[in-house]
Fold this protein.
Amino acid sequence: MGRARVARRRRWNRNPLDSQGENHCGGSGGAERNVIVPPKVNLGVFSLSWPIFLQLTFTYCMGLVDTWALGRISDAAAASVGSVNTVTTFVLMMFSFLGQGGSLVYARMLGQGKHRKVQECYSVALLLHILLGVVASAVLLIWAREMAQLLGLRGPLLSYGTTFLQVVGGSCALHSLVAMFGGVMAANGFTRAGMFAAVLTNIVNIVLIYLLVLLPAGPRWGVRGIALSTALATAAGLLFSAWLVFFRIRIRFRRPPSAERLREHGALLMAFALPTMLEPAFWQAAQITTTRIIAAVGPDELAARMYTLSITNMIGMFGSALSQGLQIAVGHLAGAGELDRIRRITRTTRLVGVGVALTLALVAGLSGGWIMDQFTDSPEVAESGRLLLWCGLLYLPGSSLIMTTASTLRAVGHVTYPAAVGILVLWGVFIPLAYALSLPLGLAIIGVMIAMAIDENLRALLLSVRWRHISAPQRAHRIVGKPKSAPVAGS
């Protein structure tokens, strides 16, 4: 009986990508607990990516459940929370990318076999996420009403928005820690553990919404109940993630021996994380500007854009998951000096990403009529939506190529270049072109789609050229040579 339990535990703990055994590292004299780390050169991109895809899907579904529950309360509640949710979504996205930046550092150190150093890095990252999370939570909790007012909410809408922002925004520290533990597990190859945490969070959220909001005999707390459900579900996911890291997978955190080492690890983490965070921040701002441009075109086009985003975002999630899995695998391989394997898996993953995005975009275009019928009864909105879904063929493959190529560049230490290209092309090409083509030149929403296609494909081209340049044999030592203490400059 005891042996069966031990066997099950070993099977669970074993790296899902490793069929050849496990690496264990520990301190001298057996004083330290064994730490299971994946082998340096045996990480499969698909094995890493499919749990990430499901994790992203479950996270997306959690937002859909909240929106559905808000609609059961009132349209005013849904509208007000939708407005303030732009703030919380932005903050949570920053923590997510901070966690991904940390996972880049961990993966490279694990690939180099620097187990003691990566354990110190985990502790520094934990401290960093706690500090930033507490600051963000305090800001959103204290100034929730002022932020809701800045977003134009008044009267009952202001009350709804303030309540949601105080509770969900005030729990940002929990989201920050979830992102940190997720990055640690992913870098060690345990992406399925993050998926299980997302499943638990969704289940708890649904149960709490039913008990606190929808149950006839319950308290029926409305917006406050939905916000509390989200915060408590996140807390449950955090506790489960911490249990997985410390007790199930048994990843050891080690305190840095000196203040100098702490500063060194903190600087390295921020050097990788800041560019990774800046690009999505500017991208989010560009999406807000794009929405304002489409709103100026007309209400039908704006409604069609909002409806079709739910479809294109789902297609994009596959590319995002693939790129995150590739980033982890390449980080390990770069640390191990395996340039040939990096080239091979990068080429295969990019081709698969583009092929899947093209196929899904084609399916969405062919199913456009049926899809739009599920969203709206307006013939004008449905027609615009069908057109937008067909336009996905122009930019979704390029978007997938951007994600996979940028992840490869970041994984080998070139974190600045993808961020610089993303920011400059978005704001230097896409936004001016979208405005000029749609409004002054009268192409309406087609002008926005043309600008988007040019933007996505231009960025994909620039990133691909950069990767081809730095991965050439005569320059290979720059990405697989002696590890550096900071990322390579993007120039």
